[in-house]
Design goal:
alpha+beta; 3 domains; five-stranded antiparallel sheet; about 30% strand
């Protein structure tokens, strides 16, 4: 019996509830088995190496996606999948099954060192989140604040990195060379919820982003917008053809004078200046936007407002009443 057929048979035996669905995708030497029950899904990528099976397991429940790691035997893989389909949560799954990949085991070891360095530190629950390629980050979350710990590769030879966020916006990061320092910073940020201004005084080596001042007074998103316009005006414009740089700078300055730099998030794609109401950088398909592509003949204006995409050419690079109407419509859209 082929390996795939044996695995499907074992899944069917382990998952006896009638609503369990199992299917195969791929070929003999590289394939995946997908098991679903209700909102819980397991996607097991399977291959053979030197005659031995390997299983890379990805778990999903609702909007939560989790990459656990590698199962080295059919029995361990099936047991973990059955527990997940039966409603087991991620922390309990890791406690029961030793199928974490080496990087994730190292991250849990780093968390344990944090606890040893500061026994009084009451760390919040952790989760693993996709970081880069096959690598995960260990995320500690307390309300709107998070600490993300990760290695990019070769964790035995390199130091881990720590990033600290407020409402999804990264405010500071550093390479971890001192576990006591990491414990102190983590404690103040997550447990004591210290203000960024306090963190700057207590830990002078931290390079805290200027937007932290806005988060501290409750205007974090407005600060992200405003400082984003600074970056576009001071840096991005310099990459445009010299012949149009003064006109584009004047155009951006005119929009800022009208207050759009506190209402709209700026972005760019090559020579295109993009404005939106997106909560985070990067537009999803269908999100409202207005963008401007500049050239010596003027600018091409495109927008997605009211569910309709339109494009037209304006023979000048300037803030006209027609452009203002588009910006007002965009500013009236909800933050998304």
């Amino acid at each position: 019996m082929r390996l795939q057929e044996a695995l499907v048979e074992k899944f069917a035996a382990a998952a006896t509830l009638p609503e369990t669905r199992i299917r195969l995708e791929g070929k003999d030497d590289s394939w995946s088995c997908i098991a679903e029950r209700g909102s819980s899904t397991c996607d097991i990528w399977c291959c053979e190496r030197e005659g031995q099976p390997r299983y890379d397991i990805r778990f999903q429940r609702g909007g939560e996606k989790l990459r656990i790691g590698n199962g080295d035997t059919e029995q361990r893989t099936i047991a973990a999948v059955a527990d997940w389909l039966n409603g087991c949560d991620a922390p309990a799954l890791r406690e029961r099954h030793s199928i974490l990949n080496p990087m994730n085991r190292a991250l849990l070891g780093l968390r344990a060192k944090l606890m040893e360095a500061r026994p009084s530190l009451s760390l919040p629950p952790y989760l693993f989140a996709p970081f880069a390629g096959p690598f995960d980050a260990l995320v500690l979350r307390q309300g709107e604040r998070t600490c993300s710990l990760w290695w990019i590769s070769s964790h035995e030879k390199k130091n881990p990195h720590a990033e600290f966020f407020w409402d999804g916006c990264r405010l500071f990061k550093f390479e971890v060379t001192d576990i006591q320092f990491l414990a102190a910073v983590t404690n103040r940020w997550l447990v004591d919820t210290a203000k960024p201004s306090e963190m700057k005084v207590e830990f002078p080596s931290l390079n805290i982003h200027p937007v932290a001042e806005y988060y501290e007074i409750g205007n974090g998103l407005e600060g992200e917008f405003f400082l984003g316009w600074d970056a576009m005006e001071n840096s991005w414009v310099g990459h445009l053809p010299e012949s149009i740089q003064p006109l584009v700078k004047a155009f951006i300055a005119a929009m800022r004078q009208k207050g759009y730099d506190r209402k709209l998030r700026p972005g760019q794609s090559m020579f295109t200046f993009v404005l939106s109401r997106s909560r985070r950088y990067g537009l999803r398909q269908g999100q409202p936007f207005v963008d401007f592509s500049f050239n010596d003949e003027g600018m091409t204006i495109s927008n997605n407002l009211g569910g309709t995409c339109t494009t037209h050419q304006q023979p000048s690079i300037m803030l006209t009443p027609e452009v203002e109407q588009l910006l007002e419509r965009l500013a009236a859209e909800p933050i998304d």
